[in-house]
Design brief:
317 residues, mainly alpha, A middle domain of Talin 1, two-stranded antiparallel sheet, 13 helices, 2 strands, globular
């Protein structure tokens, strides 16, 4: 049965990713909001919902290792595995806003997460700080995009071929987005439950299960959505979705979860896993700045770093 749920979850995630991308593109066209902003908000928040529900449930059940490991592993997977695989399919020319606004916010979130965890727990007030910054940042993104309405209208018409093909009325675009989010949520639940059952049957410890199996399972929505967006040549959605998801994972998932239940952090997570999160997030900047795009060579480096992290983690739990 656990293998059945694993396969069912994966199929549901693939279908959900297709619906979500089409709905998001329709929303971007209707409201003249850039696809990058849609990726940073609607899609990234929606595809991070599994991390939020898994982490809250784990924290309330007394499994803080699952909650923290899930966020750490998901953030590493988003940049190293998902972005790496996405650019192996289609190299990404990075939007200027990703370099000067989105990446700095992701790096700030990552550094705050590491600093707050250094004393061995994430307190309620620290979670409140993270969540408050997220609310302010989201408001800034939407307001900034709306102020550029006229310019965006031209960009959407000229640059985004996929948007020009979408003729869906707004109610249908919203419906596609909702169906996509629901499918991603349930698909992730089924995939994670099946994967955890399989991992536990192999005798893996909670922290390793969280950083590997659970984190990969909850990152599959980002993987599927980004791959679908890459095949559709909607690269703004791909990069925006991943950076936004990492921001959301820390500021909303860790923030909200620690507000509900303060989260203890294991020494291994502080002195090993956290360093991988910080280094991979920092390494993304030179990859965006050097050269005109994030190409296949850089993608191979990212995927290779993820494989190395998994090997080290499993061999030295």
């Amino acid at each position: 049965m656990m293998y059945f749920f694993l396969i069912l979850g994966l199929v549901t995630l693939i279908v959900g990713g297709e619906f979500l991308v089409r709905g998001a593109v329709g929303i971007a066209k209707k409201f003249q909001i850039s696809t990058l902003v849609i990726g940073m908000t609607v899609i990234s928040f929606g595809t991070s919902a599994p991390e939020l529900f898994v982490s809250i449930g784990a924290a309330l059940d007394g499994n803080a290792e699952i909650a923290i490991g899930n966020v750490i592993g998901s953030n590493v997977a988003n940049l190293a595995l998902v972005l790496g695989m996405t650019v192996l399919i289609l190299p990404i020319i990075v939007d200027r806003n990703s370099k000067v606004i989105d990446w700095p916010m992701m790096m700030l979130a990552t550094i705050l997460f590491a600093l707050f965890a250094m004393d061995g727990h994430i307190a309620r007030y620290e979670g409140g700080i993270l969540f408050a910054i997220l609310v302010a940042f989201t408001f800034f993104l939407i307001r900034n995009s709306r102020r550029r309405n006229k310019q965006l209208a031209v960009e959407v018409a000229e640059d985004d071929d996929e948007i020009s093909k979408v003729k869906d009325p707004i109610w249908k675009a919203l419906g596609f987005t909702l169906i996509g989010l629901v499918a991603l949520y349930f698909g992730s639940e089924w995939l994670v439950n099946g994967a955890v059952d399989i991992a536990e049957s192999l005798g893996m410890e909670k922290r390793v299960i969280a950083v590997t199996v659970v984190a990969f399972g909850t990152s599959v929505p980002e993987l599927v959505t980004s791959l679908v967006a890459a095949f559709k040549k909607e690269t703004d959605i791909s990069i925006g979705n991943l950076i936004g998801s990492n921001i959301f994972n820390i500021m909303a998932v860790v923030g909200i979860t620690s507000i509900i239940q303060p989260m203890p952090v294991e020494d291994k997570a502080i002195h090993f896993d956290m360093w991988w999160v910080v280094i991979i997030a920092a390494a993304l900047l030179p990859m965006m700045l050097i050269g005109k795009r994030i190409g296949r060579f850089k993608g191979a480096l990212l995927v290779g770093s993820y494989i190395a992290y998994m090997i080290i983690l499993v061999m030295n739990p």
